[in-house]
Amino acid sequence: MWNSLITLIFVVCSLLLPSEQQYTSDWTSLDARPLPKWYDESKIGIFIHWGLYSVPAISSEWMWWNWQGDNPSEIVVDYMKANYPPDWTYANFGPQFHPNEWADLFAVSGAKYVVLTSKHHEGYAMWPSKYSFNWNAMHVGPKRDLLGDLASAIRNRTNLAFGLYYSLFEWFNPLYLRDKSNNFTTQVYAETKALPELKEIVETYKPDIVWSDGEWEPLDTYWNATQFLAWLYNNSPVKDTVVVNDRWGSGTLCKHGGFYTCLDRYNPGHLIEHKWENCFTIDKRSWAYRPIANIGDYMTIEEVVKEIVTTISTGGNALVNVGPNMHGKIPPIYQERLQQMGSWLKVNGEGLYGSMPWLYQNDTINSDVCRYVYAFLLVWPKNTTDITLGAPLTSSNTVVTILGSNGDLLQWRVADGNRGIVIDVSNVKLHLLEMDYTL
Question: What are the E-state strand segments in 56-200?
């Protein structure tokens, strides 16, 4: 078994409901909106970084910038010279796609929502955007609505919620660069490109999540972020269910938004009262697919499970990233990790979905335990038949069981000092539990 989950005492569920009130275009009002309960209860999502950059598959999703940006990477420049004709442009890349395969894999992963990169910093739209003429998936590359095809596959073949990542800025967009040269005292790009396009994807594809990024150079006032969010919460077709993150302009990280992301791979290790999300990638060195990755570059399933458990135990959601390749296939190493994750969650998900953090996230005696109402043992004890947990207060009604077992009650006693519990696992036969190995 990847790790054992010991059931303690009681289960708590989240019951937040969206408000029917109207929100004004200021952070005080917008931040007062209750988070729709589906997001907190879901706990785990899949992040997909996939686009034109997946074709050359070098230097991750920042390939174009590292090739032709302000400070080009010599490695990327030499790679392009060695592998492509001199007149080759970034627009010549175009990925293929297998949306049904993706949907079926995500369904068995145990995740409850999916977030696709609809547009990354290069500005290439994965749908036929009328605000990105001749720089979208219908006109350049695959000649199809990649976003719409995946949305249909997810909604027709799974019960997962569907969300969209959207980069506000674009590296080489002349309108953005002109506003930037004016110190963002003009808003031509924001008003004629970014905001209309955001409304377009919301009205067309009705995402449950709007995951903003690329916000960091100008203030939120340049993006008219609060006006957009007021429309999203009051008048959009997803006003009652949509959730958003905190990337809406310089200075908004970890301060404003439905859930905080703060930094990529954010995992503070302690309880955060405001809902937050840890987006992390199975390939430790890249969000996008890399054919040169070695096996050691990928998180093991033990590492994935530990990241999920430590995140959820401190109030976060886990957004697990995969990077499909140029053929629109999710590489086998990602498939294996998601399938393993699904097998583990099939047994242990009871302790995660719909849960809330308990008073103690890290046990005072056993440092390898993170817990909700359920205690997750990240390391099975060696050379002892006792598991000692220092935080719980027991009573005569306390019972202890292990998920994935036959449900037999475990013997226990009060720890020294009249606080905590010592659980006897001498009769637990690991080879009979539903999971195959321990962390």
Answer: 113-119, 161-167
Q: Which amino acid belongs to residue 56? A: P
* Termini Cα distance of the chain: 7
Amino acid at 295: I
The side-by-side arrangement of strands in the sheet containing 243-244 is: 243-244, 209-213, 161-167, 113-119, 44-48, 316-322, 276-281
Calculate the dihedral angle through the C-alpha atoms of 67, 69, 71, 75, rounding to the nearest 10 degrees.
-10
Would you write out the chain's pLDDT as a tens digit for each of its 439 residues? 455 554 443 333 343 344 468 999 999 999 999 999 999 999 999 999 886 666 665 666 665 666 667 778 877 777 777 777 776 766 665 556 678 999 999 999 999 999 999 999 999 999 999 999 889 989 888 888 999 999 999 999 999 999 999 999 999 999 999 999 999 999 999 999 999 999 999 999 999 999 999 999 999 999 999 999 999 999 999 999 999 999 999 999 999 999 999 988 889 989 888 999 999 999 999 998 898 899 999 999 999 999 999 999 999 999 999 999 877 889 999 999 999 999 999 999 988 999 888 765 555 555 554 443 487 887 777 888 888 887 777 777 788 888 877 778 888 888 887 778 888 888 777 765 656 433 3
| Nearest Cα residue to 5 out of 408, 371, 390 | 371
DSSP calls for 324-377: --TTS---HHHHHHHHHHHHHHHHHGGGTTT----S-SB-SS-TTEEESSEEEE
Token pair listed for 218: 């100008």
User: SS3 of 413, please?
Assistant: strand
| Lateral strand order in the sheet of 4-8 | 369-371, 374-377, 4-8, 400-402
Are 219 and 174 a contacting pair, CB within 8 Å?
A: no
CA–CA separation, 166 and 157 (whole Å): 24
Instruction: Specify the pairing of strand 412-414 against strand 421-424.
Output: antiparallel
Q: Cβ(318)–Cβ(278) under 8 Å?
A: yes
Q: How many residues does the chain have?
A: 439
Q: What is the pTM of this model?
A: 0.82
Give the H or E element holding residue 118.
strand 113-119
